[in-house]
Design brief:
Length: about 450
């Protein structure tokens, strides 16, 4: 099994495995595996078999080890349900064992379109087995990840995809994304290729092991990655309805005239902070946003822009950032590192949280200071003003009641839609580096 190279090498490989699959897809990055703990291998020069590129269509940052999975989920089939942002003619999946304590071996992995949105039953004729270079089984070391070979599948935009995983063995703690807002399923035994969902039961709104889905497309302007906290994670959106602000943004990019044809990748983790990793009793809040730029953003295929929505939890969670300059410095560092990788960087102002139990006048002053710098200091290539989109004009420290989920901090579906509307779509692909308020 080969090792996947970094983001810049995704466009170099194309035709070798296409011939083996007998489909007009371009295959990238060696033999399809990405093991983060291994050394990289040089990418062979090949001639693309088809015009197009690999682009991420869905993603979720691993947020920790799932509680209660000390021995893993051996002898069960995991069926993840995810929503695409753009479509294509082929699929690859990324699996992660980042928070595992020992290697995990999957002996059977499949992808399929569902017969009904959100459900575990697969549509007849769409089930495909996933391979990994030299076989249908793959072993991922503790701390590692893997990228599959290409699978020929006509994947529509704004469609659900079922990704089923089976391991027969005890695996140790399961790497998962904690707040999926999407029902996912488990079944006894190996039912990865079963069309029927009868054997699958709802097993929590979390995604297990699956961290990315990529599509091969001939019509793409790249991908925008949203790096954020619970507001990007969308934890107060309607479960199963795909109404996070990133979902609304993806719809705008698909539907509005002259919009760039871009995928949207959600890398939000609830409780995530810009400057600090999750506290020992809150490891599920993930590593700091500064470090997640390198682990969760830069390797995404096709990424050309990133929206940074972080900073509120640095004010709210202990130990708190008591100086706005600390947050501004962190945002500036993240922006500079993103630009160094050729990305366009959009910065989001800190949304109002005056109705939240943790709010104080002192925190409000810090929030306003950070937002002033985001708007005027030229940190970002463009500014997405979530504060202006969400606050009550009569009481700017409060979220507008029509947008409030009820806790004073997190928006409801209407609020998430307002956040998506705050993004000027032309700035996602604009190469003018002067900061501008949207």
């Amino acid at each position: 099994m080969g090792v996947v190279s970094k983001r810049g090498a995704f466009g170099l490989l194309a035709a070798l495995l296409v011939v083996l699959l007998g489909i007009a897809l371009a295959i990238g990055t060696g033999r399809g595996e990405r093991v983060e703990v291994a050394a990289q291998q040089p990418a062979p020069e090949v001639v693309p078999a088809a015009r197009g590129e690999w682009v991420g269509t869905w993603s979720a940052s691993p947020s920790g080890a799932e509680p209660g999975t000390r021995d893993g989920l051996g002898g069960q089939t995991i069926r993840n349900v995810v929503r695409t942002s753009v479509g294509g003619s082929g699929v690859r999946v990324e699996l992660s064992n980042r928070y595992g304590s020992r290697p995990v071996t999957f002996t059977h992995v499949t992808v399929a379109l569902p017969s009904a949105l959100g459900g575990p039953t697969a549509h007849e004729g769409t089930m495909h087995r996933v391979t990994f270079g030299d076989g249908t089984a793959v072993t991922i070391p503790a701390g590692g990840s893997v990228l599959s070979d290409a699978v020929p599948l006509d994947l529509p935009p704004a469609a659900d995809l079922l990704v089923s995983l089976y391991t027969p063995d005890a695996t140790g703690p399961v790497t998962y994304h904690r707040m999926a807002q999407q029902p996912n399923y488990l079944a006894r035994g190996d039912q990865s290729s079963q069309l029927s969902g009868a054997g699958f039961t709802h097993a929590g709104d979390v995604w297990r092991y699956l961290t990315g889905v990529q599509v091969f497309t001939s019509a793409s302007d790249g991908a925008v990655v949203a790096l954020g906290d619970s507001l990007t994670d969308g934890i107060t959106s309607t479960p199963g309805a795909n109404r996070r602000w990133t979902d609304f943004l993806a719809a705008r990019l698909r539907e509005e005239p002259d919009a760039p044809h871009m995928a949207v990748l959600n890398q939000g983790i609830s409780g995530n902070r810009l400057l600090r990793d999750g506290a020992p009793d809150r490891l599920f809040n993930g590593a700091s946003g500064l470090s997640r730029l390198h682990s969760d953003v830069l390797h995404q295929p096709g990424v050309s822009a990133v929206v940074v929505q972080l900073g509120v939890n640095d004010l709210l969670l202990e130990p708190r950032a008591s100086d706005a300059r600390l947050i501004v410095h962190g945002l500036n560092q993240l922006a500079e590192e993103s630009r160094a990788e050729g990305l366009r960087v959009l910065g989001a102002t800190l949304a109002p949280f005056g109705g939240h139990r943790g709010w104080t006048p002192e925190l409000e002053q810090l929030r306003q200071q950070v937002n002033e710098q985001i708007r005027t200091a030229g940190i970002f290539d463009a500014v997405v003003d979530f504060d202006a989109a969400l606050h009550d004009p009569a009481a700017p420290h409060l979220m507008l009641a029509a947008f409030d989920s009820g806790d004073g901090l997190h928006p409801n579906d209407h609020g998430f839609q307002a956040m998506a509307q705050a993004v000027d779509l032309t700035t996602l692909a604009d190469h003018d580096t002067s900061a501008q308020a949207l």
